[in-house]
Amino acid sequence: MNENKILIVDGMALLFRAFFAQQYSARRLADGTPTNAIYGFMQYLFDAVNQFQPTHVACCWDMGSKTFRTEMYSNYKANRPEAPDDLIPQFSLVKDIVAALGIPNIGIEGYEADDCIGTVSKQLSQMAHVYILTGDQDMLQLVEERIHVVIMKKGRGNYAVYDLGFLKEDKGIHPFQVIEMKGLTGDTSDNYPGVKGIGEKTALKLLQEFESIDGILSNLDSVSKSIKAKIEADLDMLHLSRTLARINIEVPVACSLEECVWSVPAEAEVVFEKYRLASLLKIIV
C-alpha cells in the first residue's frame, strides 16, 4: 500500500486569493515592502498541510502572461486587469519563502501553472496520491483514481475535494467532459467565447446525451434547429475553445518525489523572522 501523499499548490491562485482577502491589511516590512498576500498565502498553505497531512509538497507558478494559448488566440485572458501595485513585489518574495520551506517552485515560460500542475500530477500519481490545491474549476479535468482536486471555498479551511465519484455527483460529468463543457460554453474569466448562445445547462444536456463534442457533431441532425444553427455558426471557435481549455500534461518539467519531501527545515525560521512571518510557523501542527 503506497501511502505517499503530495500536495501540489496552484501558487498564483492562492496568492491572488490571499491578496484580495488581506488587501486592507497594512503588513509591510521596515522598507515599506507589502507582505499581506504572502501572509495570507502561508496561512492557506499551512491550513491545507494540516488538513491533508501530505508527505510531500510542491508549488507551481505562472511565468509571465505569454503562453502557447496567447499565440493561438490573442484575446486569451486579455480581459485580466494588471496586477495591483502592492501585489507585484510579492510575486518573487513569496517564491523565496516557499523555497525556504524546502518546497520546489515549478514553472516554465510559455506554459501556465495549470499545465505544470497537470504534468507533475500525472508523473507523481504513479508514486503518490495527489491533492491539487486551487480555486480553479478548470483543474477538475485532472481528476483520476489517484489525483484529487481540492477547490478552496469561502473562508479558511473550507474545501470541496473532488474525486471521480464526487465530480460525477456534483457536476454531472466525467473529467474529460470538463474540457468539452468549456469548448461549448467558453470561459469568461479566460476570455474565450465557446459557442455563442450555449450556456451550461444546454451544454450539460448535450454532453449527457452525446458524451463529447465529437459525439454532438456527428449527431447534429438530432439536436434542435436552433442549437444546430448556433454550433454551425461557431464551429471554428468551438474547436479552438476546446483546445484552449485542455490542460497540457506533457510540459517539459519534472519533479521527483525526493525533491518535495515535506518537513520544515530549521533555517526556515530565520527567513520567517526576517519577513515578520514567524507567528505563522505556529499554525503547523
Question: How do you describe this structure in short?
Answer:
By secondary structure, this protein is an alpha/beta fold. Helix content is 42%, strand content 10%.
**Helix percentage range:** 40-55%
The span between the termini is 25 Å
Average pLDDT for all residues: 94
DSSP strand count: 6
Secondary-structure class = alpha/beta
Main sheet: strands, sense, barrel:
6 strands, mixed
Spatial arrangement of strands, main beta sheet: 3-2-1-4-5-6
Secondary structure tally, helices: 12
| Binned strand content | 5-15%
Low-confidence stretches: none
The shape is globular
What is the helix/strand order? Answer: EHHEHHEHEEEHHHHHHH
Work out the oligomeric state of the chains in this entry: single chain
Radius of gyration equals 20 Å
